[in-house]
Every structure is written in structure tokens, then in C-alpha cells.
Amino acid sequence: MSDLYWLTDDQMEQLRPFFPKSHGRPRVDDRWVLGGIVFVNRNGLRWRDAPSAYGPHETLYNRWKRWGERGVFTRMMEGLTAGDAEPKTVMINATYLKAHRAASSLRVKKGPLGRLIGRTKGGVNTKLHAVADANGRPLSFFMTAGQVSDYTGAAALLDDLPKAQWLLGDRGYDADWFRDALQAKGIQPCIPGRRSCNEPVRYGERRYRRRSRIEIMLGCLKDWRRVATRYDRCPTAFFSAVALTATVIFWL
Prior knowledge:
One of its GO terms (biological process) is DNA transposition. GO terms for molecular function: DNA binding; transposase activity. This is IS5 family transposase. This protein is of the alpha/beta class. It has 2 domains: 62 residues, no CATH class; 146 residues, Ribonuclease H-like superfamily/Ribonuclease H (Nucleotidyltransferase, domain 5, 2-Layer Sandwich), CATH 3.30.420.10. It contains 10 helices and 7 strands. Strand 3 and strand 4 form a beta hairpin. Helix 2 packs across helix 3 and helix 4 packs parallel to helix 10.
């Protein structure tokens, strides 16, 4: 039992406001089910391989699928970040997440999103775009196919940026339109210029070193095997895994 994951009373109280209301017959104990969902995502297991201490694996999977489709896990992360973030300085970055053979069908799925899986030099991937606060804790995510540029992720996350003084980003975000958009929101960019630029771009090198915190955050997310390797064809299910991972590691 010592290797199993269990949410504490304090953690359950933090998450309880985001649980959907139960209608009709009371649902199975939330602590057992959420503990099993966390265990499966952290260890990259099939649902049928979940320890019996968490109850029937069908219950775990059904709760995971139903709550994921309703956006419950995403709201958990967004709700917890709203009350405890330190947005004076924010950081932006992106990382590749390898798609497993079971998820890597490039056939276009019906619907507006598709599968969000693309082919790059490194193989078949999904790209996760992230914004983090000054402590390197994730604030928001955006997911695209692997071949999509960092500019697309930056444009998608722009409206969700909190009020901040500085934004730290690497050379992949060196674009005039992005700098102008940040300054229009009252945010000063700390982004070095590309090496091909004719004129050097001024930025605070000492402040820029703090950007390593978002790199560390993305590395911590990949410690969970269902995030480091995408097994889910459904982009909603995979995004739920990312949101749940970020919630448990950084916000509980």
C-alpha cells in the first residue's frame, strides 16, 4: 500500500469545489477514484493494470473519460492557479511530447481539432506550449501538432497572459508582432534576438537566466509517463493528463 498514491484531506478540500455535482445514486468515493487516476497517469499503465485497491478499473476509466470530456481536470488547474500565482514575471516555452504508436495515427479526425499529432524530424509528436509564473509553476497550456511553430502557440496564449511586468522567452519568440502585442498589454519582453538579426536586441541577461525555471517545469511534467509519451489518440484525454499532472505536482 505504501507505493500507492492517496490524496490527503487538505488536497481533497482544495479540489472538491471543482467536482461536478452528483445526481441520483451517489458516485464511488472520490479519493479512491482520483488516487487511481493519478497512479495510472504517473506510471503510464493501462487502465486494466491499476491496483485493485483503487477499485474496478472500469470505474477509474469511466470517471477519467467523463470528467475529461467535461473539462473538470483543466478547471482544477485553472482554479488553483487563479488564487496562488505570482505573475509579476511570466515565462513562455514549448516542448515536444512523443506520440506512441498506439496514438500516432495521422488520419484526420472529424471535428475542429483533429488529433494534434504531426511529423517532425524527431518523429511523430505533439507540441505543448506553456506559460509559467515567476516560480516556474504552469499557468496555462496550449496543444498543437508537433510541426506547428512556436509563434502559433504564442498567439494562442497571448489573451490568457496575466497582468505582468515581464515575459521571458527564448529566441524562438523573437518577432516584432509578438513584442508589440506584449507591450500593448503593458508587458515588457525579455527575449533575445535571433543570431541572424543585423541589429542586437537589448534584453536583461540576468533576468533571462530565470527562464530555466520553465524548462525545469516541463521536465517535471515529463516525469509522468502518460505525459512524456502520448498514448491517447483523443487530444482532450491527453490534455486532461497534462492538466492533472501540473495540478498534482505544482498546485497541491
